[in-house]
Write a structure and sequence with these properties.
Chain lengths: 250, 233, 274
Amino acid sequence: MFKMRWWRPPLSLAGLIALSAWQSRGLLGGAILGVVAGLSARFFATASLGQDARVMIDLLLAITTIGSLAIGWLIATNLAAAEQERGAGLLLASKPLTAGQYAVGRWLGIVVGSALIYIISALVGCLIASLGQQMPLAELSLSWLTSGGELLVLAALANLLACWTTSSLASFLTLALWFIGHSIDVLVMSSGWQFLGYILPNLNRFNLHETYVTATGLPGTFYVLTGVYALSWSVVLVVLASAALKKRTW
Amino acid sequence: MSFALAVTNVSLIRDGRPRQTVLDGVSFMVPKGQIVSLIGQNGAGKTTLLKIIAGLLSPSRGSITINSPRIGFMPEQPGFLPAVTAWQWLVLTGGLLNLNRSESKHQADLWLRRVGLHTARHQPIGRLSKGMRQRLAFAQAALGDPQLLLLDEPLDGLDPIGRQDLKGLILAARDNGTTVILCSHILSDIDELSDRLGVIDHGQLKFFGDTASFRADNDLERSFVNFINPQHV
Amino acid sequence: MVGGRGLLIAAACWALAGTSLYATNWQVAAARSTADIRQIPPLEPPSAASIKALSLGFTRAAADVAWLQTIQYFGGGNPNERYSALTALINTVVKLDPDFEYPYQFGGIILPLQGDYEDALKLLDAGIARFPNNGLLPYYAGAIARIDLNDSRRAAVYFQQAARTPGAPAAATLLAGVSLTDLDDRQIALAWWNGIIETSSDTTIRDRAIVWRDHLETVLALETLIIKINAASGLPINNLQDLVTRGLLPEVPKSPLGWPLVLNTATGRVELLR
């Protein structure tokens, strides 16, 4: 499994899905939306327009990052899951891929396909936040980079859901689980349910902006462990997806 | 062993109310380097059998023995990711077959030329016509020179010239030692291509043997109709 | 990858995920306990209009949040500093929820302490309009006008309103009269004091009103006398001692309030010398 021979097919599958995502107009539209919204927010940040502009900056920042990110992996998930609906799955599944290779390849395809928009929104978001001098740019960039772990987990979740449902339903279910994943911390705070925060994917761990505002001097290992958390959950979900794919009939 | 494929007592029963027997005790052996056609009415089980051989479905009973390390499969309705170009699709398909990058590019170039898509290779697949996509589907099935080719309605949607070209490719593959199993409703093409014939009716293999012996003195279509529905005579 | 080995890998990763989460939570908790409180930048709240637009109809909830923000800002701040954002914060709260009564009172008390008199009065005016039965609001406004702005006219209006509103301190009645007494029209003030004397059931208030009434009558009498003398003679009265010197009064009169009286030659008014 650790040899290139094992990885070539899933990487090729990932390449197919990612190319399909990048070359489709929807993703390009999402990227343009992210850039336009981000640049607009930068304009508001530097123009002296008063208090209301500041509210608009925050809103546009949210739209830039969350909105374009959601568009990114929604489109990529749609494309990845639609292979069954469009019949491309038959062609792909007839190749000598194991279920595991298929699951890994599809997951990587969703990640890479939506990473483009994530990178754009992350760059724009970092620029805007650093202009507001809320955080030093270096630390902000690092926190955004580590937040990319959330993308890995969500892509794995979408990949798993796409094994059972239509592409659109998988996308929307993943969106709903995204919000729920950020609410796991609430469960953790409730007494008697703390264990749930550890056995379910806790997406709030990737909300590093919130963490950074209240806790200074986080060690470098914090970011490494957050990345480990993301990868671990991604592997769990990809294994589950491969089990589901093994049972799937064409 | 000189056989490419051995199907032994394969059955497929779909759970449901009522339970449906899609295939019932199908057995046959395919020698290497021959073209075998499966014919039957709609819903007879031809495509299901092809999918079982391709490994896309698991039989409820029976076994499949394949002496070919590499299989190429062309489904009845090939689907692609429409934003990807024909070139990109074939190069990455080569990767799925574990070909290295240069070999993938070589194979992609070779097969695009062979199926007549070289000039359209950088067009998104979504913009290709049905016939062009059919040819692309054949190319991706034949990529990497598989020893066993499974083709489901390969000539569907092609113009006469396209069909002639593709028939030529199928024959060339056979001449290169590839075993071909194909399903088609166009019995004149079957007659032209096939060395052996399998007739499937309601999930059962009713005939397997030389095409000429099935045909006898009639044309293939008449022979088939008489075989399936003797009262129709 | 599926089967025993796959499940083993999944289980190991699941355990690793839980462990790494625990470790990161521990790191965050440790960082919070030892680190300096991150400097919060000066608060510049957005306008009520933008919050209202973004609250999607939940303006009362937004007002509650804004109020929490206000009291945390005021409660946690440096008492040596001005609470420069306090006016904006309170205004945001009452604009989002005009029926939230307490912020008006809060602003009426706190804002004058840091010199924001007019801001306080604007806030109290809005509160008075919204809550005409709250006697505290005009009372606070009157106090600001009288004590901080030395504006007897505005104070008189506020205190009169307070005196007519239930819930206002009893002193509102007296302060209305005192403010009216400072104004030009003595008759109106006199009528106010007579009104208190006739209607008040509070003996303390009544006794005080009697004293002020007597003071006002004394002042009126003196002013009337001075006007007559100035009109009749070519030698104007420059001070109250002149009245004694010219044999018009046996001695310089004192106010029943206990303070001496003095003539303001610029205005012609007899005033208390405090």
